[in-house]
Specification:
The chain is mainly α and 172 residues long. It contains 9 helices and no strands.
């Protein structure tokens, strides 16, 4: 990153190659659409490149990028919600998400459907915490939310997911 900031901007592609798979996986889970995920990830990298002068050396590039990506996903989700109240078709969700290892297609579909029924902020904390294995302190830095609020949101989201996956959820 120091070399990129020093003017070797062609090296930025190495950062893209290194961080794109994880960023894309997160965005696909958050947005449920491969196209929306691609757009959000591309926008995050473009914004990161344009803001190189604001990058602080004390933080990792990955963490800085994910803060940008979280905001891009939030904006995309809000924009999509405004444009249409439609739900993502099941087939599109299956295509959009590689899925956790070890889950059969039916379980993966059930998990995707349950995740998509969570509100965006709850889905975000679940994916960052359990999908990407981040600690609550790191999630707080990425999202700007407090650690205690994130822990409560995660606990409520886990409970809701359990209800949805057990089939005990009330229809909305």
């Amino acid at each position: 990153m120091a070399r990129v900031r020093a003017g070797e901007t062609s090296l930025f592609r190495l950062l893209v190659e290194r961080h794109r798979p994880r960023a894309l996986r997160f965005a696909r889970w958050m947005l449920g659409s491969p196209e929306d995920a691609e757009d959000a990830v591309q926008e995050a990298f473009v914004r990161a490149f344009r803001a190189l002068d604001r990058y602080q050396e004390r933080e990792t590039f990955g963490g800085w990028l994910f803060r940008i990506l979280v905001n891009r996903c939030r904006s995309a989700a809000a924009r999509r919600k405004r444009e249409s109240a439609r739900r993502v078709p099941e087939a599109a969700m299956l295509d959009a998400v590689a899925g956790p290892e070890g889950l059969c297609d039916d379980d993966r579909l059930a998990m995707m459907q349950a995740l998509m029924r969570l509100d965006a902020r709850s889905r975000e904390v679940i994916l960052l915490r359990y999908g990407d294995g981040l600690g609550f302190e790191e999630i707080a830095r990425l999202t700007g939310d407090g650690v205690s609020a994130l822990k409560m949101r995660a606990a409520r989201a886990r409970s809701r997911l359990k209800e949805l996956l057990d089939g005990n959820a009330t229809h909305e």
